[in-house]
Amino acid sequence: MNAGDVTEKDKEMAKKCLECPVCRRARTKQRGFAFWFVKVIEGGICPYCRAYERVYGRKAHEPTARPEGDS
Predict the structure, then answer these.
(1) Most buried residue, 6, 32, 51, 52, by most Cβ within 10 Å?
(2) In Å, how far are 27, 47, 53 from 66, measured between CA atoms?
(3) 62 in any annotated domain
(4) Domain containing 49: what range?
(5) What average pLDDT does the chain have?
(6) Contact at 8 Å (CB) between 60 and 38?
(7) Which positions ≥6 away from 25 have C-beta within 8 Å?
(8) Rounded CA gap, 43 and 49, in Å?
(9) Number of structural domains, the chain?
(10) Is residue 63 in some structural domain?
(11) What is the pLDDT of residues 17-35, one digit of tens each?
(12) Does some domain include residue 61?
């Protein structure tokens, strides 16, 4: 399996990361305990965070892109 291959299972696991309240808070707030926790565990422990990185091309704690004019 190449690094660029994203499977359906990866997409399902990445969806779990999107729904995770801790990861979601880390992405939106960008500070605090949730941010630190996700930043520390995402690479080695959580398979959902790793799948999120494979599918979306960014770490689970990194903010999502906001559309222009959205605040």
Answers:
(1) 52
(2) 12, 26, 18
(3) no
(4) 9-56
(5) 87
(6) yes
(7) 32, 34, 35
(8) 7
(9) 1
(10) no
(11) 999 999 999 999 999 999 9
(12) no
